[in-house]
Amino acid sequence: MKQRITRKSTAALLSAIAAVGMGAVTAISGFADDHAIGKIPSSTEETALLGDVDEEGILAEAANFSLFLEGDFNAKGADCEGRLAVGGELNVMDGIGAYSIGAHAAKESADAAVLYVGEGPVGNCVIPGEASAAIGRDMADEDVHITGTENIYRTDLIDMSEAFSAMQKTSAEVAEYEVNGTASKGQYEAKVTLTGEGDSDIYVWTFTTQEWSDLFSFPQLGLWATPSIDFIVPDDSTVVINITGGDVTLPIPTGGCMFNGQPIAGNDGLGSERILFNLPDATQFEFSNFGTFYGSILAPNAAGSDEFSANNPMSFGGHVSGQLIAKSYTAALSSDIPYSTERSCRRKRRLLRQRPPPRRQRPQQRQRRKPQPAQRQLLQRPRRKRPPPRQLRPQHRKRQPRLQQPPRQPHRKP
Questions:
Q1: Tens-digit pLDDT string for the chain (414 aa)
Q2: How far is CA 166 from the centre of its chain?
Q3: How many helices (H) and strands (E) does the chain have?
């Protein structure tokens, strides 16, 4: 039976998920410092390392991380501009150099850890010098390969098993939300349109894996079709796409992602924070193309991969503008700063308003007003007098006509 969406039930659900997420923090007491790398944080420092937990978002503490994995992360390239949390191993493929983490997240908050790895080892990673990293307290020193900062703490910051139990419950409950949208696709253009019905804060679509695959299939347009997706919903509303039934292939909309016909600008433009893809039944998922994927992905039971980077080992993979929450992930991935809440969205708008004006602004051209009929005579310039004409050349004498001679008399013989 589908669950009807109401503001009261949604608020109760979000409060329950946030409470479970807060319980995933483990306190440290009486741990001996017997490692050369990493220091033991105080209780105040440990709270700061976790960061602010979004009590209103359905992703709980995972909303603060661009990449949130229960198991292993096998990175083949690219970078993670936001925060990264891995419960298992963080492996970096040889030959790609260091994997960059937290380039933008460190500017948002210098106290919160931009990297957390539970079991380890930690591959060759680089984080900004002012940022912090957290590793499991029992990780061996020879398994830690973090450069760029000396702010490394040893703490079991997040209980991933407990956190993902909450994520699985959340994913199952979101999958039961009542559908209040319709879907259509273009015949002469590779465009998928999802239209919300009625007045709501959340618009939900539910597809099976086969229905989702058929929705982005455009055989009549050939192999060079660039699919796009357009959400027709009110401003500031949230869209949820449930894909049920098994393993999922997520096509990247190379033609763009839009809200009411207005495309999301760039990789980190406003709009991605309003999209959530929920994969409750999937054990595997993959991105089928190269480009930017807009929205967050909640797949607590699935191992993710990237088809493009799997076939091209030295590629930089795709770009996810949002969160990626999964059991594990293997591919080249570039992920953005998370914007999964209205609080983050307001912060983004505030940063845009605080941008300094450009150094040189082009002067605005005044629109010339047409003069009134009474003013035209005053505004008309006096006509310039024409210069006198040059002296005309003397005319040639007219030729005198020839005198007409009398006609000759015919010669007569005498």
A1: 555 555 444 444 434 433 333 333 333 333 435 788 999 999 999 989 988 876 666 677 787 888 999 999 998 777 888 899 999 999 988 777 788 898 888 877 778 999 999 999 999 999 988 899 999 999 999 999 999 998 999 999 999 998 999 899 999 999 999 999 999 998 888 899 999 999 999 999 999 999 999 999 888 887 778 899 999 999 989 999 999 999 999 988 888 899 999 998 777 678 888 999 999 999 999 988 778 889 989 999 999 987 655 555 545 557 888 889 999 998 766 666 554 433 333 333 333 333 333 334 444 555 555 555 555 555 555 666 666 666 555 555 556 666 666 677 766 666
A2: 26
A3: 8, 26
Helices (H), 312-414: 342-353, 373-379
Tell me the C-alpha to C-alpha distance, in Å, between residue 285 and each of 87, 243, 280: 19, 11, 11
pTM of the model: 0.73
Q: What is the DSSP string of 20-77?
A: HHHTT-----S-----SS-BPPPHHHHHHHH----TTSTTGGGGG-SEEESS-EEE-S
* Count of other CB atoms within 10 angstroms of residue 249: 17
Q: CA–CA separation, 59 vs 167, rounded Å? A: 7
User: Is the distance from CB of 178 to CB of 5 less than 8 angstroms?
Assistant: yes
